[in-house]
Specification:
- The relative contact order is 0.22.
- This protein is of the alpha+beta class and 266 residues long.
- It folds into 2 domains: 200 residues, Putative cyclase (Glucose Oxidase, domain 1), CATH 3.50.30; 53 residues, no CATH class.
- β5 and β6 form a beta hairpin.
- Helices cover 24% and strands 20% of the residues.
- It contains 8 helices and 13 strands.
- α4 packs across α6.
């Protein structure tokens, strides 16, 4: 068995639409943090801590190091993640939309199909015609509950302005076609499934045409599905189908998305 990592990390060094911040407490600094945690829970402990008292010294801790600790302040849409129907709207198919903790795990583990769109370049978009052509190229017929990976090579732009503003997204007829084939989970290696957001915003604000704003996402109010964004390394999968995808999301309470360590299993 071989496992290929298709995930991008939560990275506070990247400047994006939703910035992340990660507080990192080192092993050595963890000794001081340990003292503060313990003493702050004791009557008058904070005052004693502020005066310099400690319940344990560095010399008393094994190797002078405590456990590392990272506190992440991040949108659930940073790094590779799964969007649940609740992200698209409060109602889906006339019922309360599934939040990320409600998404059936069966949607998140199954046969993978990679469709190659690396020949497209911004401002191109993936439409129904492009999806059908990609399937014909690999001689594959989609089956219900296949997990479709849309391979654009967009992850190579990570850390640049183009990653946010100039990538190949989808149009609604492409998503509708996949849903008609019984797909419940799809994913893309760009920052978003729709076309670049600031382009959409400009078109919407200049026309107030409702069809111009988050059309693929808002389609999820009418038809139930999930999708992954910010995938990476799709080109490392050595075949177009015949592998398994696992994209089990983190259970974030009352949330519309969850981070996921997405992998292809050969």
């Amino acid at each position: 068995m071989k496992i290929i990592d298709l995930s991008l990390p939560i990275d506070d060094a990247l400047i994006e639409t939703h910035a992340a911040k990660i507080e990192r407490i080192t092993h050595k600094a963890g000794v001081e943090h340990f003292n503060w945690v313990v003493m702050s829970k004791q009557p008058g402990g904070q005052d004693r801590f502020d005066r310099g008292e400690r319940v344990a010294t560095t010399q008393e801790i094994p190797d002078g190091e405590m456990l590392s600790l990272e506190v992440v302040h991040s949108s659930v849409h940073m790094g590779s993640h799964v969007d649940a129907p609740f992200h698209y709207g409060s109602i889906c198919e006339g019922k309360p939309a599934k939040q990320i903790m409600d998404v059936p795990l069966e949607w998140c583990y199954g046969p993978g199909v990679r469709l190659d769109f690396t020949h497209l370049k911004f401002p191109d978009a993936i439409g129904k015609i492009e999806v059908i052509a990609a399937l014909e190229k690999i001689n594959y017929t989609l089956k219900p509950n296949d997990i479709v990976l849309l391979y654009t090579g967009g992850d190579k732009l990570l850390g640049t302005d183009d990653y946010v503003n100039k990538y190949v997204g989808c149009t609604t007829d492409a998503v509708e076609y996949l849903l008609d084939c019984g797909i419940k989970m799809m994913g893309i290696d760009t920052i978003g499934l729709d076309r670049p957001c600031f382009l959409m915003f400009k078109e919407f604000l200049s026309t107030k045409d409702k069809s111009k704003i988050w059309p693929c996402h808002f389609l999820g109010r009418r038809r139930e599905y999930c999708h992954m964004e910010r995938l990476g390394n799709l080109g490392a999968i050595p075949m177009s189908f015949g592998f398994t995808v696992s994209c089990l999301p983190v259970k974030v309470k009352n949330a519309g998305a969850g981070w996921s360590r997405v992998v292809a299993i050969l």
